[in-house]
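Archive entry. Fields below.
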Amino acid sequence: MSDYIVLAISCIFVNNILLAQFLGNCPFLGTSKKMETATGMAMAVVFVLVLAGIITWLTNAFILKPFNLEYLRTISFILVIASLVQFVEMFLKKSMPALYAGLGIFLPLITTNCAVMGACLINIKEDYTFIETIISSFSYAVGFGLALILFAGVRERILLAKVPKPLQDTSIGLITAGIIAMAFFAFKGMV
Amino acid sequence: MAKSITQEFVKGLWAEIPPFRLVLGLCPVLAVTKTVENGIGMGLATTFVLICSNILVSMLRSIIPTKIRIACFIIIIATFVTVVELLMQAFTYPLFLKLGIFIPLIVVNCIVLGRAEAFAFKNPVIPSTADGLGIGVGFTLSLAAIGLVREIIGTGALFGVSLFGADYQPFAFMVEAPGAFICLGLMLCIMNLVGNK
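PREDICTED_STRUCTURE:
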């Protein structure tokens, strides 16, 4: 049990998917200008990443490995993730319209979010068991959400500040992200 | 076509240079630029995928139905990424190990998909090739530039050769995660200063 807790902490803080592994930076900068969009994106990622982690692990273990098709991993994973996102979108639209409205346009965007694909590939690379895969996918997604929401909070304040012209927008955003990454850097070596 | 092929190529080098002008595909930019060598390797792999996918998308643009175009693009791109992955595994194994999961992640690099959608799907083969080459070379140059700054400041060496002598204390912050963000942010600021005059 304690192993699982250590794994979760290491995925959320120490190896934070955004700030330590640099995955999913496009939505990180793109959707963090407002708190609402950041929360929406964070929720959508948690939802999809756990499902994608499970499904890609199953694909790898029961289809690719037995038939020695591991070289097709990249293609099959992206297809699985893309169709999963499409399926989740249709399912939510039909049966949970409230949640669908909340996630909105962020669902389709997730297909090209490298955090999802990256986390799935890390799970396979680290040879995680099924339970570990579920825990690590969930923790990576929580870490993503945490960093995104923290960053959005800071960015909303920056909008009120006077920033020199060449530094505006993305430039100051990246520097802010660097300072937040410094905070997360302190967790390094903890686990 | 009003624009010539050279124009399509050159715009990727300055006017639309990724990741500075088009803020896309930041993940590999931040992650693999610890050294110049990694940066160039990653840039070349991406360039190859960009050119091939642009050519194929542009050739097939009248066949691909508009509604499912994104899925078609992703399959085309994934195919070429697998090709690059296998080639690098065979010929440049040490680099392949260093770049790790960022090679398969070229599939979800927004630049490649972005060019397929914004350019190759609407233009004939030759301009699309030029566009892919231009954006690819621009991307490689940016990666190399960021790698250069981070490697020199962060380790005091270039390609493993010490530059400032034994007295230099390497500013290791630059090769760590936070340094990547701040370095890119400052370089973007310099680009804005130079470009907006």
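CURATOR_NOTE: The interface with chain B takes residues 19-26, 29, 71-75, 77-79, 82, 111-114, 117-118, 121-122, 125, 165-168, 170-175, 177-179, 181-182, 184-185 of chain A (CB under 8 Å).
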